[in-house]
Each structure stands twice: as C-alpha cells, then as structure tokens.
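Fold this sequence, please.
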Amino acid sequence: MTIQQLRYVVRIAQCGSITEAARQLFVAQPSLSASVKELEAELGIEIFRRTPRGIALSPEGTEFLSYARQILDQTQLLEERYKHKKPAKQLCRISTQHYAFAVNAFVNLISSLETDEYEFTLRETRTYEIIEDVANFQSEIGILYLSAFNEKVLRNLFKEKSLRYTPLFEAEPHVFLSSVHPLAGRSEIELSELEEYPCLVFEQGAYNSFYFSEEILSTEPHKKRIHVSDRATLFNLLIGLNGYTICTGVLNRNLNGDNIVSVKLRTEERMRVGYVVSEKAPIGSCAREYLAELKRLIAADGFALLS
C-alpha cells in the first residue's frame, strides 16, 4: 500500500468516476484502475462497486476512506513541516437544498480566504443526493430540513448511512411570490388562497417521494404544479406565471434582487433546517469555517440557533 494509492482512492471517491479521477490526476484510466485493484487485492477488500450511476464506495470502502484521509492529512502536515512545501489547496465541498443563505455563506467564506489556491464545490441538489453525497464523502456537509412529516424516514436513512444531523434553526413556512403578485402585500396567507396559482416545486428525480420533497406540506393537493430543477428557473416562473413556492422565508436581496417577496403561510407546521455530516470522518477546517459563517448569517436574519 502506497500514499499514491490512497490519493487515488480519495480522488475517485470525490469524483464518483474513475474516468474523471484519471483526468484530474493526469493518469491513464487503465493504470488508475489497475492500481486500485492491486490495493484491493493486497487488503482483501472491495473498495469500489460499479453502479448505474457510476462508481460507489462499498461499506468496507467507506471505512477505508476515512482512514486514508487521516493518513493523507498527517502526511501533508509532515511534508509541510520537514520538506518546506507550501500548504495544499484549501478544499470544501457542500451539498444543499435550494437555500439562498447557504449560497451566501459560501460566497462570504471564499471572499474571506487569504490564499491563492482553493478548490470548492457547492451543489444545490435533490434531497436524497445530498444524503448520498455526504455518505459517500463527495461532500463534507449536507444542508436540508426536517419536519414532523419527514423526520422519521430521514432519520432512519441518516442512521443507515452513518450520518449525524445537527439542527440550525426552526422556521415558520412562508411562500415566495413575485413582488407584483396579487397576494404579495399580505402579511399572512392561507394555502387555500393559492389554489388558482401554479405551485412550483423542486423535482426529486428517482426519489420523488413526499418524504424527500424540499417543500413542506408536500402531500397537500395542488390544481397546478410545476416541477423545476434549479432556483433561477423557479424564480423566473414565480415572476412570469404568478406562481408560488413554499419555503423557509429567508431571502437574500443581494442574490435574489427585489422581484421576490416572502409572505408567512398560516400553518402549525415548522421547518427545522440543519446539516448532516459523516460519523466516520471529521470535516475539514474550511467546512468548519463555512458552518461558522452559516450560523452567523442565520443569527443575523433574526433566527435563534438551535445548536
């Protein structure tokens, strides 16, 4: 077993693809595959499994990756100390539901860095993919919400994937509307008042279960429903079609402009927004700084932190 083989395993896990890992490492794909197979044969374990979605870590591979990362971190410290190498690129990988405050914290983190090199990833993606990203070490942190409806199902999934959930804040559900929407001036809205307007929701792909819905009250019937895959499209449809979406109500005008407003939805339901991390590996220093900035922004918006 060599340090190079450990680096190969970590990069493949990050990319979820041997082809992409080989490209980033400037190594021929057959050589990379052969090196991993040699390592698996030496250790007597299967590190990666092939799936329809690409390469995935096996349970043994997940455990191995946590040890490999610790060894590589210590190796880097030794090289910096005794070989006078410059510090490695700062890394940070976040997966999140579609929250402006999560993006804003990411922007602030990068703006505060005093480094010439970094490699960050921010994925606004589907709920199940957030969980998979963190479980497979493709992201260090996953941001999503729990509610009375989805909590039992998601917590069981967290346990199965060896993830730890930490709540950040509790939000009363709101609706996002165009600033010229007929209901935009209201202080509070009943769901029944929105019946004639298109309800916009983020599509969840193969895991299109109500439990994975990004919008609370997902089981409520809607006469008009439009599925979208990104936040920019959703906001364009809010404006163009007088649509609405149900959310935490936290808006960032620097990112969203003045065309969208947030109005409280009359309901007893609550959204508890938090984050998941793997129990098998600690998060890096940049990820910790990201969480600190996220908490700062949440407090600045007037929410009481739960953690």
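The CA atoms of residues 127 and 212 lie 6 Å apart. The chain has a mean pLDDT of 88.
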